[in-house]
Amino acid sequence: MTLHARDIKQDVRELGELLGDVLEAQASTDAFETVEKIRKSSIEYRRGEADTRVDVGRSLDRLDPDEQDVVTRAFTTYFELINLAEERHRVRQIREESQAGVLEDSVTEAVELLSEQGADAETVESVLEDVLIQPTFTAHPTEARRKTVKAKLRAVARDLETLDGVRLTDREKDLVERDLEAEVTSLWQTPQVRDRRPEVTDEALNVQWYLENVLFEVIDEVYDELEHAIDEEYEEDIDVPKLYEFRSWAGSDRDGNPFVTPEVTEETLERQRDTILPLYRNKLKELSGVLSQDADNIDTDQRFDTRLAAHKERLPGVASEAEERYPDEPYRQKLKLMRESVVRVSDVRQGGYEEANELAKDLRAIAESLRENDAEVIAESQVDPLVRKVDTFGFSLASLDLRDHRAMHTNAIAEAVDRYGIDYEGMDEDERVEFLTEAILQDERTIDMADTEALSEDSQRVMRRFRETAEWQKEYGVDAIDTYAISWCEEPSHVLEVLFLANQVGIVDLPGYCGLDVVPLLESEYALSGARRIMGTLFENEAYSMALEARNNVQEIMLGYSDSNKENGFLAANWSLYNNQKRLANITSDYDVEMRLFHGRGGSISRGGGPMNDAMLALPNETVTGQIKFTEQGEAISEKYANDDIAERNLEQMLNAQTRARYNAMQDPVEEIPDEWREAMETASDAARDEYQDLLETEGFVEYFEQATPITVIENLNMGSRPASRSEDRSVDDLRAIPWVFSWTQARCIIPGWYSIATGLQAYLDDGGEIEELAEMYDEWPFFRTKIDNASLALARTDMEIAREYADLADADLRERIFPRIEDEYEQAVALISEITGRDGLLDREWLAENLDRRNPYVDPLNLLQVRLLAQSHLTETEQRTLRLTVQGIAAGMKNTG
Question: pLDDT at residue 724 above 50?
Answer without folding.
Answer: no
